[in-house]
What does this fold into?
Amino acid sequence: MKLKVCSFMSFILISIMLLLIYSYHQEVNKLKEERNYYMSKLKNLKDSVYNYTKLNEKNILFWCDYFKVKFQNIVLAQMKLESGNFTSDLSTIHNNLSGMKKARVRNTTAIYETKTGFSGYSNYIEHIRDIKMWQDYNRIDTIKTGEDYINYISRVYATDKNYKEKLYKILKSK
It folds into this structure.
């Protein structure tokens, strides 16, 4: 009788251990599935962030909109004009797409000044943020039309006497 009880107890213990092992494996598999799910989400997020950080017109307008830059199409035309369609050293090396000089009085996102006095940025997105800061400092929100904005930047920002005409040419080419 003792042998039967001992065998029965062994059977119960082994059964409990097998159930615990099975349960453990089920939990491990569930955790692996969750990990895979979140890893795929993370990859999608990384891809998405990378897509929004590439320098192209669509992303420039996205970030202009994000930072609430006024007169976005004119700002884009300025960038094209100032950077030679995003090919100048100032734009490719220093992430300065619009020829912005280093701010002396207002806040800025520039992290350094080039030898020629232009702002250098960690990325073009920070440059767009700085454009918004420049607009806020210069109270661009009081300007109502694109034509008035072009007149303003031609007067206070540009060094080329044909700046206004060049901007209009770029804007009309769209």
